[in-house]
Amino acid sequence: MSRPDRYAVVGNPIHHSLSPRIHTLFAEQTGQAMTYEARRGTPGQFAEEVGGWLAGELRGVNVTVPFKEDACQLAAVLSDRARRAGAANTLWTGDDGRIHGDNTDGVGLLRDLEDRLGCDLNGRRILILGAGGATRGILLPLLERTPAELIVANRTPARAEGLARDFADLAGDTRLQACALDALPDGPFDLILNATAAGLSEDALELPAGLVGPRTTAYDLVYGPAALRFLDWAEAAGCALSSDGLGMLVEQAAEAFAIWRGVHPETGPVLATLRHEAAD
Ligand code: NAP
Hints:
By secondary structure, this protein is of the alpha/beta class. It has helices at residues 19-30, 46-55, 68-74, 80-85, 105-116, 133-144, 157-166, 228-237, 246-261, 268-279; strands at residues 5-11, 34-40, 60-63, 77-78, 90-93, 99-102, 125-129, 149-154, 175-180, 189-194, 212-220, 241-243. The active site is at residue 68.
């Protein structure tokens, strides 16, 4: 009998990762013979380490903080969305023997926002807090929905300005702008995305309630306890809908799984299982 194909997620730190659980549930659901483990990567040695795994025992690798840019550089063949993001979260060895890279974060977010939460982004006002790798990964699919306005606000404004410049050619009819986190424009916004890592630190985001109107959706890309401060703010400010990023995590994983295995798992039951397990 042939041995199951092996996959892994690499990050540093990595002990908190839910990816092994998610992919194990996908594999059970779809009857795929595979294993999936978490591996701690060594900063500065990504290409040697992960290149070696892909040349050897692993069929594919998911990549998380802080290695997504290294993954983009390692891939010999990149999808358009990974090239635009300058970051890859999914690697695999193609039939041509070369390392391929894709970025499924953006499509994962959009699936969660549109399919689960019912958001329609066309013609809307969107505010993104943060201008790091995650924002770079979600800008392309957000702009493809042609919002009326998309503002990137960051603690370090130059980073937001750089992103607005880099994606200006894709803005089309959308007013794409950058600002400082402490100089936010007037609301209300239809969608406020928290793509900062502030929830993971001691510093809370100071956000004016005026950003929120009666139909505002607030979404934190982070999930679990780290999302609570932002979600509490959203509720107190009167957002119509709010969510953490667990759905995005499951959706981006499902896209990676589909690339590797050629079958798209059902995400709803897996998200429900994770929510149930988190509540235990
Ligand atoms: P990153 O590249 O390190 O960027 C971090 C961002 O957070 C920067 O804009 C940074 O601002 C800002 N920031 C950090 N601490 C802050 C604070 N105390 N106050 C205000 N801003 C602060 O990280 P990333 O890759 O973009 O990831 C951002 C978050 O998204 C992470 O927590 C990650 O786990 C999450 N994420 C979730 C998913 C999912 O599937 N749910 C996918 C991707 C990412 P400066 O530029 O000023 O430093």
